[in-house]
Amino acid sequence: MRLSRYFIPVLKETPSDAQIVSHRLMLRAGLIRQEAAGIYAWLPLGHRVLRKIEQIVREEQDRAGAAEMLMPTLQPADLWRESGRYDDYGQEMLRIVDRHKRDLLYGPTNEEMITEIFRSYCRSYKDVPKLLYHIQWKFRDEIRPRFGVMRGREFLMKDAYSFDLDEEAARKSYNRMFVAYLNTFARLGLKSVPMRADTGPIGGDLSHEFIILADTGESEVFCHADLLEMGAPGLDVNFDGDLQPLVDQRTALYAATEEMHDADRFVAEVPEHKRVSARGIEVGHIFNFGTKYSEPMNASVAHPDGKERPVHMGSYGVGVSRLMGGIIEASHDDNGIIWPESVAPYGVGIINMRPGDAACDAACETAYQALSKAGKEPLLDDTEDRAGAKFARMDLIGLPYQIVIGPRGLKEGKIELKVRRSGEKHDLSLDDAIDRLAEGKFANG
Ligand SMILES: Nc1ncnc2c1ncn2[C@@H]1O[C@H](COP(=O)(O)OP(=O)(O)O)[C@@H](O)[C@H]1O
Ligand SMILES: [Mg+2]
Questions:
Q1: Of the options 1.10.357.10, 3.30.1490.100, 3.90.1300.10, 3.40.50.800, the CATH number for the domain spanning 346-438
Q2: pTM of this prediction?
């Protein structure tokens, strides 16, 4: 992409109403624009990152054996009357009446709809297990939308739902998602810790929140320090094998959110120097809720003994749009965002220090073509802006690498390559820089 044709409305001033760094940086770097409280337009750069996060979430759902589908944002109220949640959900639910006076709502989550879909087609033990997911916008009329995309009213969520014959099988589905989540967040450059959590309005008894630590997080969390260093299981795990040992390993040590915290147990179980008491951001939440929805909504299957019983269900959410804020909280400096390579909107920024200079233009064009071809998604700053403004903008938007091409360097056959995260700079020939970037020869965390 050429910046002269692109749209990155960078703000010069720090927006005064943004309280946390990720919100400030998202506004300043032109990723999002607020359209109403808690409702955002995703500008081109923000949209690219959102799509990349979404794609990683999708790939790990697929790897875990979940099947993607897409349910609508609008749902009939009657479905929610069946489960009893139409009244329970309260004011967070955005209710809509259509021209025929039928009650609709903008979905805050999809347990009811997926249960209705399942029960319409699946009647036998042969029809389970099923693990289905979609990535769709949700609306929750939060009383206090804040921190930008962290707590929005409209937000993008991946929500998966599992259907199993019995509790033991449901546990296996739960474990699949548990492991998939660890891998997902690791690919996004995040250290996540699963913590025992309250089940809230979704209900049920087994639940974990996946938390990333950040001072600006909304949740107060307590855990054993070793959990932070445990790392993800890795993409080669066999999802059809026994995942229980992996899950046990990560649930054996103390980790709880505020609602589930037991101060006495914390002190008894965790040696003092290992006690982490911090703030965190909830980026994912998984629930096993048994027959809470299948029973009232009559989603039953015939077991091998011929008897019909309600299926055991679970639901598994990832805050796709919230993750963008979480990633920025975890990865930025005074100059701006530092994207992990896996979600960077573009892989390399090329700065043309003197557009119009034949040698600079030609070198930039060579770099642009070669890096495009190598799949590095370059963003070429071919604008007439001052050098200082170009450097500041490139740092602010946080692409992992920058190539600076100016007339003076070119005379000596050199360009400058900067690694955004470390700030280290290399004087290289253009060909060397292109080759090394194309081969991924710079460590960038
Ligand atoms: N208002 C919101 N804005 C952005 N993301 C949200 C919001 N509410 C929930 N999420 C994301 O969706 C995931 C699943 O939501 P869920 O656990 O059902 O919501 P909650 O924790 O608010 O009860 C959460 O872990 C979080 O990452
Ligand atoms: Mg939650």
A1: 3.40.50.800
A2: 0.96
